[in-house]
Amino acid sequence: MAPDLRVLRGRFLPWLLAALMAALAILFAVLWRSEGADDRRRAEVEASASGFLRALTNFSAETIDRDVERIRGFAVGRFADELDQTFSPDRVQAIKDQQAASTGRIQSLFVQEIEEDTTTVFAVVAETVTNDQTESPRQDTLRMELGMIETAEGWKAERLTLLQTPATPPA
User: What pTM did the predictor assign?
Assistant: First the structure.
């Protein structure tokens, strides 16, 4: 004798619907949690990139030695070597001798897609440079692409590309 399908449906359908709802709730919770993790990683990248860009564009003759050490703390790999050349002892001394100072203000910062342990950040920084060789401050808008990698110490800069160099009109 075959079981009555209506009886089976009446017994199992509520359990099947409950299991389906539980599975959907678990899936939603997992997706929600991973979205939160992505937001946290993006916030970490933004904080590190902002800190680096502020350090790079804000320095003065009086504090240049500390400023350079702070800048180097954000860099890794070949880019750290480039910074050693950019802030060589001769250039640091020239900054001191000319009483040079730079003040930078981040106007915009955009974190592109984070792929595992790398990302690219696009930034626009308004920079004002003064020294005792010029009568008035020089104001520039720097458009940069910053390549970053995730290290044990957090996100670090591994490359910096000036998309528009100071005092150069856009292409």
Answer: 0.75
